[in-house]
Amino acid sequence: MEETSNSPLWRFSTMKVGGEATRLCQPGSAEELIELVEKLNNKQEPWYILGGGSNTLISSEGVDGTVIRMTQMTKLATPEPDVLIADAGARLPHLAKYAAGLGLSGLEFAVGIPGTVGGAVVMNAGAHGSCMANVVESVEVLNSESGKISTWSKDDLKFVYRNSAIDPAKDIVISARLRLQPGSQEQITAITQHNEEYRWRTQPLGWPNLGSTFKNPLPEKSAGLLLDQSGAKQFKEGNAAVSAIHANFVINLGGATTKEVVQLLKRMQETVQENHGLRLHPEWKTLGKFSENIAEIWNGE
Ligand SMILES: Cc1cc2nc3c(=O)[nH]c(=O)nc-3n(C[C@H](O)[C@H](O)[C@H](O)COP(=O)(O)OP(=O)(O)OC[C@H]3O[C@@H](n4cnc5c(N)ncnc54)[C@H](O)[C@@H]3O)c2cc1C
Questions:
Q1: pTM as predicted
Q2: Which of 220, 238, 250, 294 is buried deepest, with most CB atoms within 10 A?
Q3: Do residues 10 and 18 lie in contact, with contact meaning Cβ atoms separated by under 8 Å?
Q4: Domains of the chain (ranges plus CATH)?
Q5: Ligand 1: residues whose CB is within 6 Å?
């Protein structure tokens, strides 16, 4: 297993922000993961799970403890013609294209979501009218307290908009079993490509970012539209700015710090509250030490 000390984490977040972790471990198998978590628990050392880092704001002040990055666990299997089993660290864009190549429909929505299977299950990631809840049949989860792996059914996972019952502080997704529909390979590939190209037109993919900053407060009220109507596209704090292409995207202009990002989020939240009377809740997770009062922004769910 790969293990490094005082490891800079900015490389592992799509925002390209993040200080050092005391230790970074990258298990390559469920066995290595189980052994690692047991060892850390026995020593009472804190640990945190990171997937693709595409929805996690990692503190510039770093992380006290071990960050367990799941991206080395990437195996895919097709035990039945319309079932895909993907390890937690497999990337959604790769998985969507793999499924399309097999003539399996259901993952076309996921091609532009740059996260891992584990992170996508936790977040119930979704786009283009679909989400993980529509394809996940069950998930293998390591309970870090018992050290046992169990199978969670779709009902156990309690998927809702951008959330699930998985608590990454104790439940670690090992793999997901996805039920897909056989279809025309040509058609599935065309929809997948269309969804991928749509991203390039509508999102600031040239700049480091973490996707949508806030959840949509109501199904018919997108956070992006509310922010745009409130003039947020002009907002900038140091090297963190609201994208001119999509008002719900925060971009790192180069060298942004979490202090700047947090200030920007606060302004975005306040402007929508003032202009529309609606409270926006961040979609992002946070990792590490924050000297700013981030609870002000993240609380009230
Ligand atoms: C350009 C861009 C576009 C995006 N578009 C979309 C979109 O259309 N729809 C959408 O829903 N999201 C989107 N996102 C956000 C993000 O890609 C998704 O939320 C994704 O599912 C996060 O996966 P990750 O592996 O990167 O998670 P991370 O950011 O690494 O982690 C997110 C949370 O999951 C936990 N976690 C990760 N892996 C595991 C595991 N194996 N077991 C237990 N817990 C785990 C972490 O501890 C953390 O709490 C976008 C992001 C970017 C940068």
A1: 0.95
A2: 250
A3: yes
A4: 2-69 (3.30.43.10), 76-200 (3.30.465.10), 204-298 (3.90.78.10)
A5: 14, 49-56, 70, 88, 113-116, 118-120, 122-123, 125-127, 166, 168, 172-173, 203, 205, 209-211, 285
